[in-house]
Amino acid sequence: MAYVEHGAHVGSGCRIGHGSWIDRGAVIGDRTVIGDGVRIGRGTVIGNRVHIGSHSRIGSSVLIEHGVHLDSDSTVPDGSEVLAGMHSRLTPARHRPHRKTRGGMAA
Predict the structure, then answer these.
(1) Which domain range does residue 7 map to?
(2) pTM of this structure
(3) pLDDT tens profile 11-70
(4) Is beta strand 15-16 parallel, antiparallel or unpaired with respect to 39-40?
């Protein structure tokens, strides 16, 4: 069973996987496929014919254009835009502390 919060809109011909959650104000375009266990944040807009792989996390106020393919376990941070024609696995950048070396140059 998938959960669609009050105020979300799911277009025609969509498939939403088991355990997925679509938050309030989200708009899912026609013929979009959402895998199992996906979380879609509040106010996110997803275009037509998008594929979101299982166990992905889509933040709030995200825009995903038509035809995008996101692999399983993708993460799209709040406020992001994913452009048409992309096929990828998005994950947030990891913070890497700068290391000091002799001469003050970062390694």
Answers:
(1) 1-83
(2) 0.80
(3) 999 999 999 999 999 999 999 999 999 999 999 999 999 999 999 999 999 999 999 999
(4) unpaired
* Of residues 38, 92, 39, 30, the one with CA closest to residue 67: 30
Q: How confident is the model at residue 73 (pLDDT cuts 50, 70, 90)?
A: very high
Exposure of 3 in the CB half-sphere (CA atoms within 13 A): 11
- CA dist., res. 65 & res. 49, Å (int): 9
> Quick check: is 38 in a domain?
yes
Side by side, which strands form the sheet with 69-70? 15-16, 33-34, 51-52, 69-70, 87-88
| Beta strands at 87-88 and 39-40: parallel, antiparallel or unpaired | unpaired
Q: How far is CA 52 from CA 11, 66, 82, in A?
A: 15, 12, 12
CATH number at residue 21: 2.160.10.10
